[in-house]
Amino acid sequence: MWEIRKKFKDYEQRKVFAGVLDEQTLFTLYKLSNKGYFEILHGFIKQGKESCVLLAEQKNKNLVAVKIHAIAAGNFKKIWPYLEGDPRFYNIKHNRRAIIFAWCKKEFKNMKIAFKANVPCPEPIAQMNNVLIMEFLGEDFKPAPRLVDIELENPEKVFNEIIEYIKLLYKANLVHGDLSFYNILWYKEKPYFIDFSQGVLLSHPNAQYLLKRDITNICNDFKKYGIEADPEKIYEEVVK
Predict the structure, then answer these.
(1) pTM of structure
(2) Three-class SS string for 145-176?
(3) Which residues have a Cβ under 8 Å from the Cβ of 34 and sit 6 or more positions away?
(4) Structural domains of the chain ordered from first start
(5) Residue 139, beta-bridge partner list
(6) Active site residues
(7) Nearest 5°: CA angle at 96, between 93 and 100?
(8) Lowest mean pLDDT among 68-72, 92-96, 184-188, 212-216
(9) In this predicted model, what pLDDT tens digit does every residue of 147-201 receive, in sequence order?
(10) Phi-psi category of 8—alpha, beta or left, where left has phi over 0 and alpha has psi -120 to 50?
């Protein structure tokens, strides 16, 4: 898989990359590159235990984000409850690799639903095995900041926008499932939702619980701006 490693411009990034990804993931990246989804890998945007995100460049110079769900480090026991009640994945095998692949596909499908529903989020481009390619949100090779990392000038307006996006998702039969300032980017003067892997359809047995949790998290996050909102009242507005 040296060919995919050579796609890194930076030698140090290439060494880090080679040390954290298994051969099958490298082969998946190789196939996606051959299909034209990216030409150059610029390095890591985000590194975590269960996933990492790389910045990549296409032949036409457009930038994309490449998210890789780690197979070895994936907590499949934590993941399984989100898949178990989803009719889209009722027949997956109970092994680590199959579950991580389904987890990645689930995020891709959820992002497609959100994007189609006009919820600001990265446009999903392609998915294969444990690799997801999506629109890059950022400028000058730098990713857009998370809400947790900035101070908002008009927090009340942003709060109302986020609640409207939650409503749009609900009308599209989806709950984000892991919403907070950590999973919302600030891009082009708007909040953008990211990290949809824990999202569930409304038919999922935990959908209402996760919706209430999302709303409560957002209300709690905005308390730092002096905004006091009633999560239960907002929940009733969303589901009516």
Answers:
(1) 0.91
(2) CEHHHCCCCCHHHHHHHHHHHHHHHHHCCEEC
(3) none
(4) 2-142 (3.30.200.20), 143-239 (1.10.510.10)
(5) 142
(6) 178, 195
(7) 90
(8) 92-96
(9) 999 999 999 999 999 999 999 999 999 999 999 999 999 999 999 999 999 999 9
(10) beta
Position 106: which residue type? Answer: K
Dmax over CA atoms of the chain, in Å, equals 55
Nearest to 96 by CA among 131, 72, 128: 72
pLDDT one-digit tens code per residue, 107-158: 999 999 999 999 999 999 999 999 999 999 999 899 999 999 999 999 999 9
Q: Which residues contact 149 (CB under 8 A, 6 or more apart)?
A: none
Give the H or E element holding residue 69. strand 63-69
Radius of gyration of the chain, Cα coordinates, nearest whole angstrom: 18
d(CA 190, CA 108): 22
Which tokens sit at 126?
A: 């392609």
Three-class secondary structure of residue 229 per DSSP? coil
Which tokens hold the place of 123? 């446009």
Beta strands 51-57; 40-47: pairing state: antiparallel
Residue 106: Cβ within 10 Å count = 23
Cβ atoms < 10 Å from Cβ of 157 = 12
Determine the Cα–Cα distance for residues 1 and 172; give it in Å rounded to an integer: 40
- Among 208, 192, 188, residue whose Cα is nearest residue 200: 208
